[in-house]
Amino acid sequence: MDSTSSISANVNNIPVLNGTNFKKWKEHVIIVLGCMDLDFALREDRPSDLTSASTAEQRSTMEKWERSNRMSLMIMKHSIPEAIRGAIPEETQAKAFLDQIANRFAANEKVETSTILSKLVSMRYKGKENIREYIMEMSNLVTRLKALKLELSEDILVHLVLISLPTQFSPFKISYNTQKEKWTLNELIAQCVQEEERLKQEKIESAHLASTSQGFEINLAVVPTDTWWIDTGATTHISVTMQGCLRSRMPTDGERYIYVGNGNKAAVKAIGLFILQLDSGYICGPFPTPSWNGQQYFITFIDDYSRYGYLYLIHEKSQSLDVFKNFKAEVENQLSKKIKAVRSDRGGEYYGRYDRSGEQRPGPFAKYLMECGIVPQYTMPGTPSQNGVAERRNRTLKDMVRSMISHSTLPESLWGEAIKTAVYILNRVPSKAVAKTPYELWTSKKPSIRHLHVWGCPVEARPYKPNEKKLDSRTVSCYFVGYSERSRGFKFYDPSTRSFFETGNAKFIEDVELSGRESLRKVVFEEEFVNIPIITIGHGHIMFNDTIQNVQSITGIQDTPEIPPAQVMEPIQVHQEVTQQPQEPQVQVPLRRSTRERRSTISNDYVVYLQEHEFDMGLEDDPISVSQVKQSSNSEKWIEAMKDEMKSMKDNGVWDLVDLPKGVKPIGCKWIFKTKRDSKGNIVRYKARLVAKGFTQKEGIDYKETFSPVSSKDSFRIIMALVAHYDLELHQMDVKTAFLNDNIDETIYMVQPENFESNDSKQLVCRLKRSIYGLKQASRQWYRKFDQVITSFGFKENTVDQCIYLKFSGSKFIILVLYVDDILLASSDVGLLHETKRFLSSKFDMKDLGNASFVLGIQIHRDRSRGILGLSQKAYIDKVLSRFGMSNCAPGDTPVAKGDKFSLHQCLKNELEKKDMERFPYASAVGSLMYAQVCTHPDIAYIVGMLGRYLSNPGMDHWKKAKRVMRYLQRTKDYMLTYRRSSHLEIVGYLDSDFAGCLDSRRSTSGYIFMLAGGAVSWKSVKQTLVASSTMEAEFIACYEASNHGIWLRNFVTQLRIVDGIEKPLRINCDNKAAELYSKNNRSSSKSKHIDIKFLVVKERVQSLQVSIEHISTNSMIADPLTKGLPPKVYHEHVTHMGIVHIDDVSE
């Protein structure tokens, strides 16, 4: 290998300097230069200049130093990216150049220390890697901290390792605490490796482990080898955890300890309930309307642990035993568990009968339970609450059936199908009694609810017809009545043939009013009066009365008052008029309050997707008037905020109280109340603002010019991309009462503020001396004042966006972004940043908010060690979803489906449809989606633009598409628009068009997006202004629109003067070869003669090297989602390339 190849190989071993690896880079540089004997210039200062009297040794030393210095500079610069190299002052000596780099990145050591320490304390061993390698990785982090002058002792490292081990190592941790007082790291590694091998062996020898009941999870527990548990098959089992137990109780005196085989004893912490340990049963009926096949009763069995229920329709109560046998055989076989106990009331079908002597004669059901060893549990007479699980379940079922039938047009004889559907649904939705759904606890699988539909809705179904002919009707108009019990399909009722059939091929029509009438029908679904032997207590013996008793009805279920034990119940006849009998005065006893802990209906960590409501469910609004403030629960805080505002007015001398001149009408004023929230939605400040009613001002009299100091969103995102790339400091400030900082030129009179009128001079008015919020000229006055102040401090205005200011101080710089009274500061130097903040605070009443984290409703997340910055609107999206009743909606895969089209035919056609559509806040929904699209979501730009075209006359189809976008935002609300540090900083554009995509005007849709630092900084989806005659023409028009905005972006970034390479042509990619060639070709053709001359400016821009139109494959065209719907897989790939990723990818 020659010397050149050797040098090249060694240089390639040096990692590229990226801002976070300075120490590693410096170490490699010194090693490489030392190996090549080129480090002389780094070790020694430059020798004195040679003279005619210099010796040969001095000349040799100078020659060696110069060669070392020259080679060292070239090698170091070769491994530094252009963006970083341009920010480092030029040096002629290698040693000074290395010192400049060290000074540049010295501030990163604190961040690197924090990052490494955070990673070290949060590490957790998950069992995937080798435990020796895992501990060595932690040891390496400690070594890196030591190099950063933060030394952790070996004892601390040992404790950190132990803390990070999972629960399987719990006995090992106990052994550590009880054996040696102090362990070395090598001893810990050896013991951990031995423990890991033992755990692996126990997994293989499964006979040494006791399995837990199905329906819940449990961690492995390590039991000392000299102690064992005896499993004799008894009804009481032992578990090392309370997981899986529905509820528990404390042990009694005789249950406090368990003795094991060698005489040791273990303490019992609690006694819990698990699956199939207790089942509750209940029979309801008879009902006056039999089901379609004659059943008049239903019986339910509910597992007390999981709340999973079974329901059977029966003709007579005597069938309960046969049904229970089928139920028992199925569940015991499926779960490999035995039913331990059955709880029921004392009905004859369960309990049996009493003879005349008072002895119980067990019925067939009770005898069967005794034969199977199942413990029967009966409620006491008159206390149905003791069987509360079954009682409440049946009450819920009755309410659901009544609601389902009343909202449909189906006959009441289908109550059997309705109640089976109700049980099916209850098994799959959360219950306040259990942490998960009953289905998940019963089967250990999460239920799917995507296939659920509205019971009783009209359906066009296609049944299986083996003898179907070509001209026969393919579908049947029917109604959905349930789910197939043993197949994946649905059950339908055909009213024309009064028959049922099952199929999975159907179209559900769930968007129409099902009842077909203005008011819901009343469903009389009551149990009939039945003969039940009633037990009464009197004179020391039990008597039986064969009386007719009214059983609880479905439509009116009320709590029965408790009857004192000594009271005798007289027979009550059905048709006999009941009169209230006089009673003895009773002593009033205070009601006993329940001490039971109230549990929430749905646990906090549970997510279920319910059908969204189509009405406004907005968050609690802020008060809109002073009267509402006085009635508010936070009235003291609002009034305090009003006083602070009035103090600011007084301190700034905003007005003088004067008499109103004759012929002059004062403008009004109003209080505006707003709660300011942080990124998590928590209230941080109650803000009251006094605003003038500027809408009553007259142009030319009360004001002359207006201007609002608002930076564009594109400018904001470009600044954020530069912050991520250059690792700039990013801080935020707020100007208090910004509009009060400048005098006004016009004479304006205003009425006195409500609730703060002067007691002595209520007839006077306010003559305004300074601008106030609400005045037409207030924004312009504030901007003029701020511009004068900030330019006097050395800031230069960006001529492309006048609300962006830049200041240089040597190699340091700071960027200021102004958005009315919110200020962002991005600086390469902390000292310059604080100097600017001190200056602003001296000129205005400022509030320093520190590091920017929440700006204009946008959350800013940073991982400075990885050079990543993310923009998120999760809080805003949550508020939008809540406002439109979509907080619990099912997440959508894409905002628009492939092939979806919009047209005027979907708009409203008559007054009835318009009146119906008034219920839905379509315009408000589209406006809310528009702000999310403008700020951080280019992925919904196309569909939001399409929805906006029909704001004047939206139809039901448009409303459904808007809800689909909200479902998509539900899935992606945790996603962020991200920017990353890159080796090359360049703006790259992508454009696309959808030829003749508008069905109404046949115009095409243009879409473009510009990328910087790995994320989108600008995008647009818009309908073209004229009809294109070909795909090439449509694409060329899109080139014109994209190049217009590309030139603006290029000029803006050029004004910043901190991005290298921006002067070269701006590259814009398109996937139409003909459009690319036409932009570069000066020749005309018959197919392009009609193209408007204004679009031909694209050719001029290409020739003048302002832009460059390049062809790429359609698969790489990330602007595709801005012009049309795409398949989910392709769509997600393009969205990822836009820089939209999940928050975990930013914060991990």
Secondary structure topology:
Elements (H helix, E strand, L loop, with lengths): L2 H10 L9 H14 L4 H4 L12 H23 L3 H4 L8 H12 L2 H15 L8 H17 L6 H11 L5 H9 L6 H20 L43 E2 L7 E3 L5 E3 L3 E2 L6 E6 L12 E7 L5 E6 L5 H16 L5 E4 L3 H4 L1 E2 L5 E2 L2 H9 L2 E4 L9 H19 L8 H12 L11 H6 L14 E4 L14 E8 L6 E5 L4 E5 L2 E3 L21 E9 L2 E9 L76 H6 L3 H17 L3 E4 L10 E9 L5 E10 L20 H14 L2 E7 L13 E2 L14 E4 L9 H14 L4 E2 L6 E6 L2 E8 L2 E6 L2 H14 L2 E6 L2 E2 L2 E6 L4 E5 L1 H10 L27 H7 L4 H14 L5 H8 L7 H17 L2 E6 L7 E7 L10 E8 L2 E9 L7 H26 L9 E5 L2 H8 L16 H7 L3 E5 L16 H10 L2 E3 L1 H4 L1
Parallel strand pairs: 5-8, 8-11, 34-37, 37-38
Antiparallel strand pairs: 1-4, 2-3, 5-6, 6-7, 9-10, 12-13, 12-16, 13-14, 14-15, 17-18, 19-24, 20-21, 22-28, 22-29, 23-24, 25-26, 26-27, 27-28, 30-31, 31-32, 32-33, 33-39, 34-35, 35-36
Helix pairs in contact: 4-6, 7-8, 15-16, 25-26, 25-27, 28-29
- Major sheet, described briefly? 6 strands, antiparallel
- Please tally the helical runs, counting DSSP H or I stretches of 4 or more residues: 32
Walk across the major sheet and give the strand order: 25-26-27-28-22-29
Quickly count the domains: 7
What is the average per-residue confidence, as pLDDT, rounded to a whole number? 78
Distance between the termini: 44 Å
Overall outline: globular
In total, how many beta strands?
39
Structural class, by secondary structure, is alpha+beta
| Proportion of strand residues | 15-25%
Oligomer: single chain
Helix content: 25-40%
pLDDT < 50 runs, ≥5 residues: 205-235, 514-518, 528-620, 700-704
**Rg, alpha carbons:** 40 Å
